[in-house]
């Protein structure tokens, strides 16, 4: 089993989180923009490319806020993720052009429905993966500090 690196963007503006909307058998859910690192890319290059592909806009990358491991066999999606071991590096980011409408990127994720702004006040009731970062994103937006390494969470 290989370990895969991934870069993710935490984009919070006007008390809203930018997220990718997808759908599965249980209904709609959200993920942070970003994705898998390709050979020869650094994490920032990965995140720039993935945001262009998924949300169709350039971002400015800020500080690293969280590192999450995801070992698929340990979580509720083990039926299809058992072989996945991914380390995600989550960065504070901002949109280069915050007034831009999101009409889709150059290569959206499989199953991607839209790009949505989720009000932070609604985030705890939202199915955002990883679920454990919802509270941490809210706390970070309020200026609270948290541990960077989150471990094997979903």
From TrEMBL:
<dbReference type="InterPro" id="IPR000086">
    <property type="entry name" value="NUDIX_hydrolase_dom"/>
</dbReference>
<feature type="domain" description="Nudix hydrolase">
    <location>
        <begin position="1"/>
        <end position="141"/>
    </location>
</feature>
<dbReference type="Pfam" id="PF00293">
    <property type="entry name" value="NUDIX"/>
</dbReference>
<protein>
    <submittedName>
        <fullName>ADP-ribose pyrophosphatase YjhB (NUDIX family)</fullName>
    </submittedName>
</protein>
<dbReference type="GO" id="GO:0016787">
    <property type="term" value="F:hydrolase activity"/>
</dbReference>
<keyword id="KW-0378">Hydrolase</keyword>
<dbReference type="InterPro" id="IPR015797">
    <property type="entry name" value="NUDIX_hydrolase-like_dom_sf"/>
</dbReference>
């Amino acid at each position: 089993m290989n370990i895969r690196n991934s870069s993710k963007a935490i984009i919070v503006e006007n008390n809203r989180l930018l997220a990718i909307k997808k759908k599965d058998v249980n209904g709609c859910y959200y993920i942070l923009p970003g994705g898998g690192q390709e050979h020869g890319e650094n994490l920032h290059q990965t995140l720039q490319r993935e945001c262009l592909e998924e949300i169709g806009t350039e971002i400015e990358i800020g500080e690293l806020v969280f590192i999450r491991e995801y070992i698929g066999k340990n979580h509720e999606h083990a039926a299809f993720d058992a072989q996945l071991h991914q380390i995600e590096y989550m960065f504070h980011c901002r949109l280069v052009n915050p007034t831009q409408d999101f009409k889709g990127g150059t290569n959206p994720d499989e199953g991607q429905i839209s790009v949505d702004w989720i009000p932070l006040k609604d985030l705890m009731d939202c199915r955002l993966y990883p679920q454990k970062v919802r509270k941490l994103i809210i706390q970070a937006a309020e200026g609270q500090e948290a541990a960077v390494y989150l471990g094997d969470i979903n």
